Every structure is written in structure tokens, then in C-alpha cells.
Amino acid sequence: MHVLFVCTGNSCRSQMAEGFARSMGGDEVTVDSAGIEAHGKNPRAVAAMNEVGVDISEQESTQLADAMLAQADVVVTVCGHADEHCPILPTGTRKVHWPLDDPARATGTEDEITGQFRRVRDEIRARVAALLQELEH
User: Fold this and answer.
1) Nearest to 34 by CA among 92, 1, 76
2) How far is Cα 87 from Cα 72, in angstroms, rounded to an integer?
3) pLDDT along the chain (137 residues), means of 10
4) Class of residue 118 by CB neighbours under 10 A (exposed 0-12, middle 13-18, buried 19+)
5) Strand pairing class (74-77; 94-97)
6) Which CATH superfamily is domain 2-136 in?
7) Quick check: pTM over 0.85?
């Protein structure tokens, strides 16, 4: 099973989803992430994931390519922009949409911004766990 997480810039949400899917999916699942554009990884996303023992620092921020779509069994869009701009998928590829808030747009104090990253991270962890469980059946 090959899962591809897609967002606008492949800097936060899709990176966190890739990290959780890699850590929870084991050898049964191949995981990638990409963006409509590549913005580089957000350091706050890396820090939020490190807090829960998942290192995403070596993951690449990549731009979505047709070859990635061709390999994917499931494509998960994690924001409205990616959902709207996702290319047409090959026949048989399943698409799932998760309307996640963008923690990179959070404002306020450093603690408030960090809290937004943690909240979105925890939502992503729960959604990835549910998706992987569903794919097992």
C-alpha cells in the first residue's frame, strides 16, 4: 500500500502526516508527501514532531509530480488548496481529504503558536492512525 500526503507547500501538515505514517505503518505501507509547491520544512513542525518522538528532519520538501501520483494507492489532501488543485488521479487511486488548519498561519504569542502546532499534530496523528487501521482491513 502506497500513501501520498499532499498539501500546498509540503512544509507542515503533509510532513507531519508522512512522519506519523512512517512511524506507525511499518513495512506494510510506503509513504511519501508532496506539495503543490515546495516551501521547505517548517522548523516548528519538526519541533512539534520531536516532542512526540517522531523525527521528520530528514524528510524532503518536494513538489508533487505525476510519477508520485502514479505510484500512490491512496492520496490524502490535507488542506483545501491542495484538494482543489490536486491533479486528476489515475483510475483506481483513492482520494481522501482532511480539512486541517494550517499551523504555519497561527498568530499570537510563541506559546499560542506552539499550541496550534501541537493541536494540528495531534489531529494528524489520530487521522493517520485511523487511516492505517482502515487500510489493514
Assistant:
1) 76
2) 13
3) 95 97 92 93 97 96 94 95 87 95 95 97 98 89
4) middle
5) parallel
6) Response regulator (3.40.50.2300)
7) yes
- Say how far apart CA 22 and CA 95 lie, in whole Å: 19
- Asked if 72 contacts 45 with a C-beta cutoff of 8 angstroms, the reply is no
SS (H, E, C) the chain: CEEEEEECCCCCHHHHHHHHHHHHHHHHCEEEEEECCCCCCCHHHHHHHHHCCCCCCCCCCCECCHHHHHHCCEEEECCHHHHHHCCCCCCCCEEEECCCCCHHHCCCCHHHHHHHHHHHHHHHHHHHHHHHHHHHC
Q: Which residues are the active-site residues?
A: 7, 79, 86
